[in-house]
Specification:
The protein contains 16 helices and twelve strands. The protein has 407 residues and is an alpha/beta fold. Helix content is 44%, strand content 15%. The relative contact order is 0.10. It starts with 20 loop residues before the first strand and ends with a helix. It has an eight-stranded parallel β-barrel with strand order 1-2-7-8-9-10-11-12, surrounded by six helices. The chain has a three-stranded antiparallel β-sheet with strand order 4-5-6, with no helix packed on it.
Length: 407
């Protein structure tokens, strides 16, 4: 008689990670339009970017009727100067309560059970789970003992998860999970995973690299079967992460290594249609993906700087349109470059709301004035060509440099 595998119960408002191919948490590529794009192309779940607990604490929760989003906002707190009366609150986290319903996991950066619980409670009613970041190796995450630094303090990490399970997971009926990296030896990894699976979490993601390893280094999968076995015996869902290129490969790898699903990171950043199966047509042309991304970015009033960065990732660098988009100053200019005529009016309105229409106009005026100065300098040097030839050449080089920087 075959026994039923043990499973940690999935709370009423939570979600089971088993059988899922999901969007990994990424600082810039995990903002709302990127998540919505991944969901459109078939991601089962999406992780938001790591959000530090202290940045969430003190935020105001608002429903934005213009974008149909929930925005968590606050005034900057890193300045000793008084807040100007006309200063707007910064958006710390933005989610879509309808389109992301039941499919959004909030990733938390923390090094304290107390602040982790305080921050998680703010968003718990609006997400399907809280995931603790214990894998990011970058200084902005590890500073203060967060991210991959937690791997060196396993009891602290366990206490954070236990506090979240008891005070957030059980209260709001959502799952609590954790994302980690491999430790220095299989034995240390085994001990860590075993301990974390005792905290009451519903899911664990293993990034198949050690803390010092960079994304360009090949993922290490030798320990996956062991990690999957520990999680399975504890009833905890296990996802793998690292060098997963598309949905078909994700499901194949999960089956091969005995884990429950997989995360896609870099491949999704380059082309979100990687969540489509080959049977569905596989990867779409970049122009189609970029068009859809732009529609979503405008729809949710995404920050211009973030949109511009994502365009640089989604568009092939050698494409002429990509080069021109990197010189764009606002949404309207991108729509002109990509010939997105249907989006033009909405883009113009968004530019006005974001205050970047004037910025672009000022940049154009500066460029015009500098070009006029350059021409005048050129005429002046021509008039004195006979006795100032060397000086003229140097002046022209300087002028060319200034003009390029201005543009």
């Amino acid at each position: 008689m075959t026994s039923t595998p043990k499973r940690v119960p999935i709370p009423k408002n939570g979600v089971d990670y088993r059988g899922k191919v999901v969007l990994a948490p990424m600082v810039r590529s995990g903002e709302l339009p990127s998540r919505l794009l991944a969901l459109k192309y078939g991601a089962d779940l999406v992780w938001g970017p790591e959000t530090v607990d202290k940045s969430m604490i003190g935020t105001n929760k608002n429903f934005n009727p213009l974008t149909s989003t929930i925005d968590f906002t606050r005034f900057p707190s890193n300045s000793s100067r008084p807040t100007p009366k006309d200063q707007k609150e910064s958006v710390i986290y933005k989610l879509h309560p309808t389109k992301e319903s039941g499919r959004l996991i909030f990733q938390l950066g923390t090094s304290s059970p107390t602040t982790a619980v305080e921050a998680a409670k703010l968003v718990a009613r609006d997400v399907a789970g809280i995931d603790v970041n214990a894998g990011c190796p970058k200084p902005f995450s590890t500073i203060g003992g967060m991210g991959a630094a937690l791997l060196q303090t396993p009891e602290l990490l366990a206490s954070i998860l236990e506090a979240l399970v008891k005070e957030v997971g059980e209260v709001y009926e959502i799952g609590i999970s954790v994302k980690i990296r491999l430790l220095e030896t299989p034995e240390k990894t085994e001990a860590l995973v075993t301990r974390l699976c005792q905290t009451g979490i519903t899911g664990l993601t293993i990034h198949c690299r050690t803390t010092p390893m960079r994304p360009r280094e090949r993922a290490i999968r030798d320990q996956l079967r062991m990690i999957g076995r520990i999680c399975r015996e504890a009833g905890v869902a296990c996802l793998m992460n690292g060098d997963v290129a598309n949905r078909d490969q994700a499901l194949k790898l999960a089956e091969e290594y005995g884990v429950d699903g997989a995360m896609i990171a870099t491949a999704a950043e380059a082309n979100s249609s990687c969540f489509r199966t080959e049977a569905e047509g596989g990867l779409l042309p970049w122009k189609e993906v970029v068009t859809e991304y732009m529609n979503l970015a405008v729809e949710v009033d995404n920050r211009w700087g973030n949109t511009k960065f994502l365009l640089s990732q989604l568009m092939p660098g050698k494409a002429e349109a990509a080069k021109r988009c990197q010189q764009a100053k606002n949404y309207r200019q991108v729509c002109e470059i990509l010939e997105l005529d249907d989006l033009y009016d909405k883009a113009r309105d968004l530019d006005e709301r974001l205050g970047i229409t004037q910025r672009a106009g000022q940049a154009v005026e500066r460029a015009k004035k500098q070009n006029q100065s350059a021409k005048a300098a050129g005429r002046h040097s021509d008039a004195h060509h006979d006795n100032q030839e060397g000086h003229s050449i140097l002046a022209q080089r300087g002028i060319t440099t200034v003009s390029a920087m201005a543009v």
